[in-house]
């Protein structure tokens, strides 16, 4: 069994302002990530929609933000842009399960310092938030295969469609029976 204390990531001090806004519409993920970032020394405020995120920014602009790209009521880039207007020195990260180059470029242009694919863990998020400018990311030793990335995307859309095969197939522009065969198989490595 692993020692949990060995897995914890200590927040390097001094961080002059540990305030953080976490915006995600996936409530279980929001709770887990909030708890994990709180344990790492951040003062976390959460929001589960664009409207709540913008409202939280009106109260006080945090020094850090972690924002999901696709939310039920819009695009998380709205929150990043609003944060940068209120506090230009804030460090924001975009999390997404739908990564592509165009949205990554847009996120960086709007002020995000990084763009992480879900599922990202708290250590990845903390490292990205505290990374100094000019730092280059190491290539993972064992990256996910293209088949695994495709499978993860299909699973996410399937869950977002409340496990409705017909709706998922329609949204993925895929034949329903093909999707059923994919869902019946084990996850690729």
UniProtKB/TrEMBL annotation:
Response regulatory domain boundaries: 19-133
GO biological process: phosphorelay signal transduction system
PROSITE patterns the UniProt entry points to: RESPONSE_REGULATORY
Protein name: ActR/PrrA/RegA family redox response regulator transcription factor
Stored InterPro entries: ActR_PrrA_rreg, Bact_response_regulator, CheY-like_superfamily, Sig_transdc_resp-reg_receiver
Gene Ontology molecular function: DNA binding
Keyword field: DNA-binding, Phosphoprotein, Transcription, Transcription regulation, Two-component regulatory system
4-aspartylphosphate modified-residue sites: 68
Gene3D superfamilies tied to this protein: 3.40.50.2300, Homeodomain-like
Tree of life domain: Bacteria
NCBIfam families: ActR_PrrA_rreg
């Amino acid at each position: 069994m692993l020692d949990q204390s060995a897995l914890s990531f200590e927040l390097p001090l001094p961080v002059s302002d540990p305030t953080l806004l976490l915006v995600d519409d996936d409530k279980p993920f929001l709770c887990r990530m909030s708890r994990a970032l709180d344990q790492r020394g951040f003062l976390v405020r959460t929001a589960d929609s664009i409207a709540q995120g913008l409202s939280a920014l009106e109260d006080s602009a945090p020094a850090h933000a972690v924002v999901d790209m696709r939310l039920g009521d819009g695009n998380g880039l709205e929150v990043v842009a609003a944060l940068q207007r209120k506090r230009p020195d804030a460090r924001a990260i975009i999390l997404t399960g739908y990564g592509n180059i165009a949205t990554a470029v847009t996120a960086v242009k709007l002020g995000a310092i990084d763009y992480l694919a879900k599922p990202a863990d708290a250590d990845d998020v903390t490292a990205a938030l505290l990374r100094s400018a000019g730092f280059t990311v190491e290539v993972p030793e064992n990256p996910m295969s293209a088949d695994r990335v495709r499978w993860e995307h299909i699973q996410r859309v399937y869950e977002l469609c409340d496990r409705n095969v017909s709706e998922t197939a329609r949204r993925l522009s895929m034949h329903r029976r093909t999707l059923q065969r994919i869902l019946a198989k084990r996850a690729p490595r």
